[in-house]
Write a structure and sequence with these properties.
Length: 110
């Protein structure tokens, strides 16, 4: 059985508004699906990733960094698809207040 192939997307999300906003979900034509992940310590002491069960909150006038080893976005590839390391893809982020925003981001294989 083949393991699904996935790439991490790391970026800074800024909220220049005067009210908090929430990143709800994302989508990309280059990915089978987009997941919001958090990195957690498992009971055996190794690090693993969990599907985030809540939106990512971005404080008013603040920012949240999605980075390796922390909160991040995961691009789950379509079957048989492959990315070259450093590929740029279009990613549409869906925010609770700001609505949709499409950005060009780098996908990293880790
Ligand atoms: Cu992940």
């Amino acid at each position: 059985m083949d393991m699904p192939t996935a790439g991490g997307i790391f970026m800074m999300i800024k909220n220049s508004g005067d009210a908090p906003d929430k990143l709800l979900s994302g989508s990309s034509p280059a990915c089978g699906s987009i997941e919001l992940h958090e990195v957690v310590m498992k009971s055996d002491g190794t690090m693993g990733m969990n599907l985030l069960d809540k939106p990512i909150e971005i404080p008013a006038g603040g920012q949240v960094e999605l980075k390796s080893g922390d909160l991040h976005i995961m691009c789950i590839m379509k079957k048989d698809d492959q990315f070259k390391p450093g590929s740029m893809i279009d990613l549409t982020l869906v925010f609770e207040k700001s609505g949709e925003m499409t950005v060009s981001v780098e996908v990293r294989m880790e």
